[in-house]
Design a protein that fits this description.
By secondary structure, this protein is of the alpha+beta class. It is 26% helix and 23% strand. It contains 10 helices and 19 strands. Strands 11, 12, 15, 16, 17, 18 and 19 form a 7-stranded mixed sheet that branches. Strands 1-8-6-3 form a 4-stranded antiparallel sheet. Strands 5-4-2-7 form a 4-stranded antiparallel sheet, with no helix packed on it. Helix 3 packs parallel to helix 4 and helix 8 packs across helix 9. The radius of gyration is 31 Å and the shape is elongated. About 12% of the residues have low confidence. One of its GO terms (cellular component) is pyruvate dehydrogenase complex. Keywords: Acyltransferase, Lipoyl, Transferase, Transit peptide.
Length: 420
Amino acid sequence: MPALSSTMTEGKIVSWVKSEGDVLSKGESVVVVESDKADMDVETFYDGILAAIVVNEGETAPVGAAIGLLAETEAEIAEARAKATAQSPAAPPPPVEESAHVASKAESPAPAPAPVAAATPGKLVATPYAKKLAKQHKVDITKLVGTGPFGRVTPEDVEKASGIAPAPKANVVAAAAPVAPAAASPPKAAASYPEIPGAKIVPFTTMQAAVSRNMIESLSVPTFRVGYPIATDALDALYKKVKAKAVTMTALLAKAAAMALVQHPVVNATCKDGKSFTYNSSVNIAVAVAMDDGLITPVLQDADKLDLYLLSKKWKELVDKARAKQLQPQEYNSGTFTLSNLGMFGVDRFDAILPPGQGAIMAVGASKPTVVADKEGFFTVKNQMLVNVTADHRIIYGADLAAFLQTFAKIILNPESLTM
C-alpha cells in the first residue's frame, strides 16, 4: 500500500488539494507542503484512491514520513484507514526507552482499569526494568494498574504487587539536604533562564527553524573575516544611469561579485568533507532577502554569464516568487557564493555568517561620504562603502580573499565593464 511522503527535512501541510476517497492519477497534485523556504505542490507517484490522510492541514511531518495512504482498490480502503489511525501523530507515542505490550480481550479477564484505558486504550506499557522484575517475581504484569506517565507500569508497581518492600533510594540524601547550607546546592540549569512575567513563547515557523539549523551547522566551520573599503562614486553614477531601466543596486553588486569570482575560483569553491576542494563550474550568487517570518536567499544562477539587464529582470522574478513562497528548491539552495546587503538600511558595516555548503559570503554596508587622503597627502571627500567577507579558512586563505577583494574593488571603481 503506497504512502505519500515528502523529501525535505521537515514540512508543514498547508492544504490538501484532494480529499479522502478521491481517485488519483500518477503525477497529479495532491497536497501543498510548506518546506524550509517555500510552498510546493506534492504529486503522487502512483495511481489509486486517497484512502486516508495521516498528517492533517497545519501539522508538520519529518523527512520520509507518510502523510497519506493510497489504496489500489476500494476493498483496501478500510485497511488503509486502520493503518492511518495507528500512524496518527496525534496519539502520544511512548518514550523511546519503553516497549509496549498489546493485550487482547482474551488475555485480560477483568476490564481495563480506568487510568490505563484513558491514557492508552487497549494497550499496556511498561518499562524494561518493570518487565524484568515481573518475570523475576512471577507477577502477571498485564493485570497491573500503571501509575507512570500514560498508564506506564513502573518497577514500583511491580514491587507493590509482589509484596516486596521498595528498594532504598536517595531518600536519606534528600532528607539531609535541607540541613546543609543553601549555597551548597548546585544551581539548576533552568534557573539561568528565569521566566519573565507576561512573556509569550512563539514557536519557530518552518523557515525560521531552517535558518536556525543552518546557523548551528555553520558553527562547525572555521571562518575568518576580511574588510575592504571601496569608493563608490563611479558605481553611484552608473546606478543613476541604469536605474530607469529597472536595474537595482543588488544586481550591480551581484554582477561585480560574479565577475571577480571568475578570476578567483577558490573563493567560489566549497569544502564538503574537510578533506578536499570542490571547484564549482557555475557562479551562482545567492542574495539574502528578509521575509516576514525568516530569511531566504534566492540564487542568480550563472550570474557571470548574464548581462546586467537580464540579471536585473531575473532578480525581480526571484524576489516576487520568494515573497509568494513559490521558489523551487534549486532557486534557493544552489548558491556557491552569498551576497548580503544591509546598506539600504544605513548599516555601515557588519559581519555575515557563512552559509552551509559555501566558501564565502560578502556583507555590504552603506555608501557614505568619507574623508580620503590620496598618495600626495591631499584630502578629498568620496562616497565609500565597507565590504566584509567571511570565508571558510579550510580552503580560502587570507591572500586568496585579499586578491579577490582587490579585483572586486577594481570593478566597482571602474564599473563600465558591468554593462558590457
